[in-house]
Amino acid sequence: xxxxxxxxxxxxxxxxxxxxxxxxxxxxxxxxxxxxxxxxxxxxxxxxxxxxxxxxxxxxxxxxxxxxxxxxxxxxxxxxxxxxxxxxxxxxxxxxxxxxxxxxxxxxxxxxxxxxxxxxxxxxxxxxxxxxxxxxxxxxxxxxxxxxxxxxxxxxxxxxxxxxxxxxxxxxxxxxxxxxxxxxxxxxxxxxxxxxxxxxxxxxx
Amino acid sequence: xxxxxxxxxxxxxxxxxxxxxxxxxxxxxxxxxxxxxxxxxxxxxxxxxxxxxxxxxxxxxxxxxxxxxxxxxxxxxxxxxxxxxxxxxxxxxxxxxxxxxxxxxxxxxxxxxxxxxxxxxxxxxxxxxxxxxxxxxxxxxxxxxxxxxxxxxxxxxxxxxxxxxxxxxxxxxxxxxxxxxxxxxxxxxxxxxxxxxxxxxxxxxxxxxxxxxxxxxxxxxxxxxxxx
Lengths: 205, 228
Ligand SMILES: [Zn+2]
Fold this sequence. Notes:
By secondary structure, chain A is mainly α. Chain A has ten helices and no strands. Chain A has two domains: about 160 residues, RNA polymerase sigma factor, region 2, helix turn helix motif (Rna Polymerase Sigma Factor, Chain: A, Orthogonal Bundle), CATH 1.10.1740.10; about 30 residues. The radius of gyration of chain A is 19 Å and the shape is globular. With about 230 residues, chain B is of the alpha+beta class. A six-stranded antiparallel beta sheet of chain B has the order 3-4-5-14-8-11. The site of zinc ion has 6 residues of chain B, from helix 3.
């Protein structure tokens, strides 16, 4: 039974660094918004990011209205803060992700009954990359190495790692979506994590 | 030289935005002083961002997307995009004044991650001074703790966790010496007795009162709720 179900979900070829995302194009649109308040470019960005942000937010917020608020807030920050994006310091996807994560963080804090204090931009600045420029070559290599490691994991482990860490799905959710027993999810995650940790050198020692 | 870093799991949760503000700020403060963690965070953020916005990947996990939802969503998106671009307002970053905090006549620059947080009044016991940071995270309490030269925190354990990020100066305990930037996460299995020979300032996050374990220090248990 497990074999059947597994082949069903592994049909789609996973690729973590998708070649489907047209990074130069996204960059160009974001720059056009920053430098000339280009509404057409913004609309393109909205078409690319809007629905994706909506789907990601629906995983984190109980209702559709709140997910829409995340889209609204994130995209209006993209419109208002585009000039803070520095293409030399990172991909447009990384910058928009930061904006989205920050909006989500502040909203969740508000919903949980804390103050409306908008701390996220102090914790994760949107105005600068955390990587200094002279490190970018190194980074590129290490980034490729990480990708390499993830892609070397057995297919089944890759799915669980990506689902759990990148999509922020719970182990229970993954079990349902991948049609697998919870114990299988847990053990795959544990195995995959052990391999990743070894490569990433936990503790830096 | 920084020797103590957040675990891989903590960094992952930090990048995902899953940690409470107190712990997120702790990691941000550490990363500002630690190029290694900074780099790891940057890489993971790239990866997570890429995966998040990768269509095929999203599709694989969303199996219950109904037609209706998509149609409705697209309609809303157009209206939303119109509304957003109707405003020509551009974000202007506030002049980041470097905020400072004073403990016993010593002025410290506040880390960027703490700039917008509300500080409570400072209270003192012996060589310890503490200002609570008002984050309203229920059982999680966050503070700035100064230990004056020659001061120490009595031997204690933690019922929950206790995070200490050293902002300035140094201290040592049974495990060794800690320096500026060190990220020290302890749980109930640890017992320690930090001493600061030359004084230090720490950012601390704890989710349960410290529990003092030895002799006369047991009488000091009220100090536990002071620190935490
Ligand atoms: Zn570090």
